[in-house]
Specification:
It comes from Flagellimonas yonaguniensis. Keywords: Membrane, Transmembrane, Transmembrane helix. This is Sulfatase. The chain is mostly helical. The protein has one domain. The chain is 75% helix and 0% strand.
Amino acid sequence: MSKIFPMRFTLFKAYIGLFLILSFIVRCSFFIWNFSEVDKEAFTLIETFGIGFLFDIATISFFAIPYLAYLLFFPKRFYGSIVDKIITYFGFSIGVLVDTPIFRTVSLQN
């Protein structure tokens, strides 16, 4: 498996996983919060969570695809260099700040 996804992609995979898990938690909390107003049919719930998952995939793609391109096309001799670390940590920090569901939830309530 390490041949397909080298160690360089660890942060990339963790970011995508973190985003999808947090999105699911936020979606479940909204479901519980507004339980009295929600249509409780099984098909409707599956459809709602499925469409939400597709929207989450589309949202994470805005940040993940440029970073994936960076990981694929940045020369191997620069892996771990100070420039690589600056770009990676800066991109991850901006992505977590802007693209996390918690930030979007807080910004919607104001």
